[in-house]
Amino acid sequence: MGRVLPFVIAASLSVVVLFTPASGVPSSPPGTDKVVHTVLFALLAFTGLYAKIPHILLALVAYAGISEVLQQVITPLHRSGDVLDALVDVLGIGLGWAIASAVRSLRRGPRTTR
């Protein structure tokens, strides 16, 4: 459970961030929403890879699209789906993968050639 707990926390945070009704979303400067999406999905990807969840990156790409559709169709949320948000989510997934790859490389240490 130790490796999975950070992902569970990140996934729970994502549900709160992505599905809070519009009335509960604080106002913010333009572009903040895209930064939040990027960081959120980078966190999901990083923690999912850390937890060694099979096919996590593909699952997160699906989650990015599905979450935007749900924001549009769940009318009590009074939110709208945004294709650009889904694209920024995928950018965040890539960022999380890159960070996880860099951390793995650092942990392995320098390679010696013979």
Structural features, described:
With 114 residues, the chain is mainly alpha-helical. The protein is built from four helices and no strands. The protein is elongated.
Percent of sequence in beta strands:
under 5%
Low-confidence stretches at least 5 residues in length (pLDDT < 50)?
Answer: none
Give the termini separation. 40 Å
C-alpha geometry: elongated
Order of SSEs: HHHH
Number of DSSP-assigned strands:
0
Radius of gyration: 16 Å
Instruction: Describe the largest sheet.
Output: none
Structural class: mainly alpha
- Mean pLDDT score: 94
Oligomer: single chain
Question: Helix fraction?
Answer: 55-70%
How many DSSP H or I helices? Answer: 4
Primary descriptors:
mainly alpha; 114 residues; elongated
Map the helices and strands.
Elements (H helix, E strand, L loop, with lengths): L4 H15 L12 H19 L5 H18 L9 H26 L6
Helix pairs in contact: 1-2, 2-3, 2-4, 3-4
How would you summarize this macromolecular structure in one to three sentences?
The chain is built from 4 helices and no strands.
